[in-house]
Structure formats: structure tokens, C-alpha cells
Amino acid sequence: MKTSFLYPIFHKLDYCLQKELKDCQTVLDLGCGPSSPLKNIKNIKYSVGVELFKPYLEISKKQKIHNKYLQRIF
Questions:
Q1: What is the mean pLDDT of the chain?
Q2: What CA–CA distance (Å, rounded) separates 63 from 57?
Q3: What's the rounded Cα separation, in Å, for the pair 46 and 50?
Q4: What angle do CA 12, 18, 21 make, to 5 degrees?
Q5: 69-72: long-range contacts at Cβ-Cβ below 8 A with a sequence spacing of 24 or more?
Q6: Domain locations along the chain
């Protein structure tokens, strides 16, 4: 398995999010996209993903990162 040179940064991001969201049961993820760091957070019971770019929204839906999805166009 090839590891990205950015792994240490994202690994720390996952740790920080897990720590900061430990008491949260619901989350709103703006700009959720297919690489949302919330996919690695286990204690969230309900999340809503909002994305402008439809292809990213569709990929995120297939990955089932969030419970509900919204596409917003301004």
C-alpha cells in the first residue's frame, strides 16, 4: 500500500475531529464531497452533507458517508 506524503496531516485531522466531535451526535458537513474527513469519525449518529458540485455529491452518496444529502446552487 502506497502512503501519501500528506498522510501525517490527514491523520492528525482525523484525530482532531474525533476529539472535537466526541460529544456531538449530529453534524452538518458543508462541502462534503467524496473525501470528507467525517467518513473516518465513528461516533456521529446523524450527518447531513451539503455539496455544490453534483459529481462530488453523487460519489459521496455512493460511499454512504452521510445520512442525508443536499445539493445547493447559489
A1: 86
A2: 10
A3: 14
A4: 135
A5: 69/32
A6: 24-71
